[in-house]
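Assess the record.
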Amino acid sequence: MQTDEPHIKDISILYVEDEDAIREGYARALNRISDHVLLASNGRDGLEMFKEEKPDIVISDIRMPVMDGIEMLQKIKEIDPDCSVIFTTAHNDNAYLLQALDLQVDAYLQKPVEKNILKSKIEKLASSILREKMQFLQQKEIEAQRVILQNVLDHEKNLLVVTDFEKVHFANKAFLDIFAVESVEAFNKMCISFLNIFLPVPPYLHKGLLSDGETFYDLVEKSEETRRIVNIVGNDAHPRAYQINISRIVHEDQESYLCTMTDITRMNIERLSTEKKAYFDNLTGIFNRHKFNELFEIELNRVKRYGNNTSVSVLDIDHFKHFNDTYGHLIGDKVLQKLAETISSRIRNTDIFARWGGEEFVLLFPETSVEDARKVCEKLREAVAGIECSEAEQITASFGIAQVLPDDTMKSAFKRADDALYEAKKAGRNRVMVAS
């Protein structure tokens, strides 16, 4: 699609003059300049015609019956402050001139106006108007093409991303849907680096395989085509395998990359099943320690970069060894499953819950102050105490909570939460303690 360039003949002109002979005489000259000439005999008619036709240029006498040119122009400028205006007058009246200048008139010509001078003024104004119209039409065409392209790409099932490997500059709907976000801006806020979405799981490609000075583009290019595969876990927490292809884009000395990712999960079902076992606890079905460590590091990076409020809690079942010794491991396993189900159903989708080992569990609360985390854990503690298990006695749990600080490591944050858990145990169990 190509925009036809507008011509001076396309410029519309409104000529307002109360003297019939002058109006008709100049109308013939104006018709040689433009194919769209409108005529009015006073300011009131000129204003109504302007409202209906929105001409590009207004040429008007100043002194006219019914409504003079100054009043007409004042009302026109209220409708279109950028309207181009040429005033003509036979009167050497400084007051009118000052009013005309105050209204930002483009030209002020004394009658009788030489037609060549009038033509020159019109052509000069028309040149600027045509340039603006052309820019508007081009921008409109670019926007229309962008919308068409976006619609085409949004119907593409493959994931399409333009990135510098840190931030995402463009993404189609299929990609955004994977992470349950509405826009590229939302994705960039959620994910510190684009390459973080690729999980470090052998034999898939990920940033941990990069050599010094090597880009992800280089890594993909040097890999065999059959091994150009990445692993992504979206908002549903299920890992998926994608064949990835990358093209380099250079625009105005800025380098970026177009990444096309094709879902090949069905072709890798057995491999993905094995990987899922690597992320989830077999007994309870929640995340395992390995996966929690990975997600904790992502949240810790957000805390360091943005100063987000994030809290972590370590909890375990009180007297769990007694459960196993008294009722056997099968009942102990059932208790673990019931606790996992109870807590999983009472936390947000953004909260991260995992089995740390044995009877010990961990909770990560992104965007949550330590006080709000304490309130949540109190409710969870009450819910755990309300679990009914006909084969065993009442179940209780103790919680230790700590805020994740910008200078923390995983070890230091967990140490404070674990110390708080120890204080909860020491204080009698079945309670929530916050690290000092």
User: Anything to note?
Assistant: Residues 115-154 form the longest helix (40 residues).
